[in-house]
Fold each of these.
Amino acid sequence: MLTHKIEEVRANVKKWKSEGLVIGVVPTMGALHAGHASLIKKAVETCDKVIVSVFVNPIQFGPSEDFDKYPRTLEADVELAEGIGADLIFAPSADEMYGEGQRLSNDTLTYVAPPFFYVNKLCGKSRVGHFDGVCTVVMKLFNITQADYGFFGQKDAQQLIILRKMVNDLNVPIELIGCPIVREESGLALSSRNKYLNEKGKEDALALNKILNNIKMCYNKGVTDISALKETAFQFLNEAHELEYLEFVDKENLEDKEKADDNTLVLIACRVDGVRLIDNILLK
Ligand code: PAF
């Protein structure tokens, strides 16, 4: 069932809770693909009732980012989510989420702001305010759905680590489940933004996965020096690529690694033909 209304979600949740059912939420921005499908499938396997939210959250986009052109495919999203077994698709308007006419700024809105250490690196460096927007909307979704479990993709690894920190710091009664990255056969990590790529762009985008796999291969052969591992990336980059970062951090707390080890998460962000893509790999 599709609803645009918070009240309707709450009414369903109240009924489900009174029946002692376990509720899962899969927060998304829509344009659902096989990566989202794997989250919904996991949620359906884990929970009695599953809510999928579809909301392109304005407050997590910077002024020069792709909010307006972000793909919106609600009808197909509902079909996909229901086909997997989701019970409720919650697709609110911005007015419904933030209040009619609400000015979406941190002068006027209560934000959930994750700690500076977690946001002043990786994606947060170029996307100032992004994780405040993510945490704020996800906290709202947790409060609206009262879910027992929340399902998120490992592709947005920094996001997942920050959300775990938020849940822990604010004692939010929910367990977060991280689900593996889903890739095309070519190795390209699935992303709604892949829709912006043409055939050549998709070919160029494979560099991200190649760089990460190659780093893991070198690590497995015994290379732990991070500069040396970073060096190996350049053979995969050409004029189509604008590397934003390639970083080696602890998989739990995002602390920079001095040497690569089994707990190292390698993250990359790169513009490919102008499209910003991210990917990551765990070295273990
Ligand atoms: O990962 C996303 O799609 C978004 O950041 C999320 C978690 C749905 C919040 O808008």
Amino acid sequence: MEPALDHASEGSNVADTKHRNGERLQTVIIGGGVCGLAIGWQLAEAGQQVTLLERERCGQAATHAAAGMLAAAAECEPGEEQLLQLTRWAQELWPTFLDRLEAASGLRPDYRDEGTLVVALNRDEVDRLRFRHDFQSALGLPLQWLEGREVREREPHLRQSAAAAIYSLEDHQVDNRQLAEGLKRAFVNAGGELREHTEVAALDCPEDSAKRIHLANGEVLQAEHLVLAAGAWTRGLPGLPDAAKPPVRPLKGQSLALQMDPAAPLLEHVLWTEQVYCVPRRDGRLIIGATVEERGFDDSVTAGGLYALIEGARRALPGIEDLPLLESWSGFRPGCRDDAPVLGSTPVPGLHLATGHHRNGILLAPVTGHCLAEQILTGEMPEAARPFSLARFKPRSTNRKKPLLQSA
Ligand code: FAD
Ligand code: GLY
């Protein structure tokens, strides 16, 4: 049962349109993470009237916790060939997206294009790495196989036993925290209305009229289009009709950052081992991530989590032992049943989803913004995003066909 909402709120606390030339809000977006901000910016730039509601400050949830890897290849697992089309498209869009963002916000998030090394740290790991290389190369990914000596030439601080690596040329990285700030500025500069510290308490989503958004402060907004981009919290928004609920849950990730000497960093490329990834920022921060845990919304940072990360990173880069610990944190990936995002319309007209980005939300920011804006402006999703609609989770029909001939 959906929670019932008070439809008698037609009166004075309905803050829809009266102070907006008698019109309803065109689009309301719930969630000021990378997804909500990217969509809001595209729509505001296209001249739409957009209001974005964020219960805290923008970009402080999963978007803050991320490592900023744009890792279409390093993240690609067997069975994810369709998702790869979306993630590779995102990689193509990134350079122009950055230029546009800089022009729109005056801020260019730090972007590094040295590429990614996925290493085998001993002979046992080489066979598994070779399998991965062959699988990913067959998908057309631009990869190079490096022998141990070649890997250590590129990264001299790697453990001497490093036996081989896949060098993924087009898996770059961006500073995700700067990205969130840039998107926020671009959205506001384009005329978007940003309401931080504004929590949505409940939704009322009739099929044939404006959506109502009940705020925790008692205000009620109305919107023609409502975009749910509340990350791991999207499914739990009170009042969301069952038919529009995405199968999304929180997948906890713990990470930490060490401080390297920026003039003499221990690492230049993004590095993956079988246990951890290490992401070197230009300012000397070395991000080490991340656990993947099914623990609901438990946000604790644990000794076990940090130990596993440090031990995993030390196996690859023994020199980290001397680095000061800067920060540790946790965040919630919005993980979908099939690890792919849910993008676009729902069975409720005017209600749209942008969630389930799991491990790739930063990478997919340009695609998410573009696709949801297209959906709202034209009613059509770009081709590459169509397989990622909510409709893919429709329950199979249980109606069996009657046999043509009944046996006596
Ligand atoms: P979020 O950033 O979580 O934003 C959702 C927002 O909705 C929040 O700000 C929240 O406050 C708001 N909200 C929720 N409920 C309400 C409400 N009722 N009212 C108002 N506001 C509400 N991706 C990559 O591409 N590369 C990486 O290297 C990478 N590394 C990661 C490492 C870790 C440890 C984690 C946890 C994730 C990582 N990700 C990475 C995944 C990426 O961070 C996410 O996919 C992405 O940030 C999801 O963005 P979002 O906007 O959907 O969600
Ligand atoms: N994409 C890295 C992570 O989710 O941990």
Amino acid sequence: MLNIVIFGAPGSGKGTQSERIVNKYGINHISTGDVLRAEIKNGTELGKVAKGYIDQGQLLPDELIIDILASTLDSFKASKGVIFDGFPRTIPQAEALKKMLAERGQEVSTMLDLNVPEEELMRRLINRGLESGRADDNEETIKKRLNVYHTQTSPLIDWYKKEGKYQYIKGYGDMDQILTDICEAIDKVK
Ligand code: ADP
């Protein structure tokens, strides 16, 4: 089983690269952001709650997102592995993931940190907002999300280093080169 955590700030390219990894390795993809956006679109209770946090650039409470993740994980049958995109985003979430996988006799294979300079992140997110109309891709909310990333999410870098799972990926420059680097990092742990 290949369990990959794709990690990085908002706008670092997690979604784009995840799609390519899914195609190449035939594993399942969980994007917590996509799950929440689908709930919002369908007008569910969860969607209503999620929208409140997302529009403010804040994270959903850990317990809530951990439950969502667990049920998504259980919906995969006979899976070759999973790429976790947008989860974990806090240390309690990383601990929960570790426990959840251990209960299934598994573990995280590697954590790939897509590293992108801050100015480039801003540029990408503002462009994405213009093109896709994603409500949280406006300058004010982007700044809040980057701040949340620095305070709540980036401590996971040291956490995964201690676990011996961390791998740095240069997340800017040539797109194909980024994928090549990612595949090399995955093949190391396969
Ligand atoms: P990005 O990586 O561009 O910030 P995502 O699509 O991964 O976008 O997530 C969008 C929003 O969904 C986040 O800003 C947050 O409000 C919420 N969200 C997604 N994943 C999580 C998570 N693991 N924990 C808490 N909130 C989350």
